[in-house]
């Protein structure tokens, strides 16, 4: 069991798009174990590999007691809309209203190379979009409306 340190903004790894996993190696298996161990803590909904300093396209999740992971996730469907408070382990103590699709569906693979689908509404839909953004090199404040984003960035600068 390895609980990894979470990288915080402005760490450049958080702004770097992650590479796809091309083969399931012992290192990838270890990464998945670490992601699952690290996300399996109250108050943590999702964790992407770059948040622990690894530039591979993998994330773990912990929603409603359901803990898992997905490798090489790609969102292939969204619908509806939700607007609510969102936070991030890489931006500690910053919660801002963020607009997202209500429903999201992503496909990827598991450690056996089998296709998996992860989907959901509400918090699950929000988490899928949030973690895929991380894997693309974005953080949730990038999605904030301009006046709210300005406030968030000021708060972030003063917290450092």
Automatic annotation (TrEMBL):
Could you tell me which SUPFAM superfamilies the record lists for this protein?
A: Peptide deformylase
The record's top EC class is hydrolase
Which catalytic reaction applies to this protein?
Answer: N-terminal N-formyl-L-methionyl-[peptide] + H2O = N-terminal L-methionyl-[peptide] + formate
Task: One Pfam family, please name it.
Answer: Pep_deformylase
Question: EC number(s) for this protein?
Answer: 3.5.1.88
Q: Where does Fe cation bind?
A: 88, 130, 134
Q: What keyword terms does UniProt attach to this protein?
A: Hydrolase, Iron, Metal-binding, Protein biosynthesis
List, alphabetically, the CDD domains matched.
Pep_deformylase
What cofactor(s) does the depicted protein rely on? Fe(2+)
Q: Enumerate the active-site residues.
A: 131
Q: How is the cofactor bound?
A: Binds 1 Fe(2+) ion.
Similarity comment text for this entry = Belongs to the polypeptide deformylase family.
Please give the function described in this protein's UniProt entry. Answer: Removes the formyl group from the N-terminal Met of newly synthesized proteins. Requires at least a dipeptide for an efficient rate of reaction. N-terminal L-methionine is a prerequisite for activity but the enzyme has broad specificity at other positions.
> What protein name is recorded for this chain?
Peptide deformylase
Q: Which organism is it from?
A: Bifidobacterium asteroides
């Amino acid at each position: 069991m390895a609980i990894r340190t979470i990288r915080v903004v402005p760490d450049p790894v958080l702004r770097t798009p992650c590479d796809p996993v091309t083969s399931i190696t012992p290192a990838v298996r270890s990464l998945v174990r670490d992601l699952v161990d690290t996300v399996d803590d109250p108050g943590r909904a999702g964790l992407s590999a770059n948040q622990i300093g690894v530039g591979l396209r993998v994330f773990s999740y912990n929603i409603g007691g359901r803990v898992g992971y997905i490798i090489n996730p790609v969102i292939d469907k969204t619908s509806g809309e939700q607007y609510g408070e969102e936070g991030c382990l890489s931006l500690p103590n910053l919660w801002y209203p963020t607009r997202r699709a209500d429903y999201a569906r992503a496909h990827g693979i598991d450690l056996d190379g089998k296709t998996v689908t992860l989907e959901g509404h509400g918090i699950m839909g929000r988490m899928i979009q949030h973690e895929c953004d991380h894997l693309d090199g974005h953080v949730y404040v990038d999605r904030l409306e301009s006046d709210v984003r300005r406030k968030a960035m000021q708060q972030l600068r003063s917290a450092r």
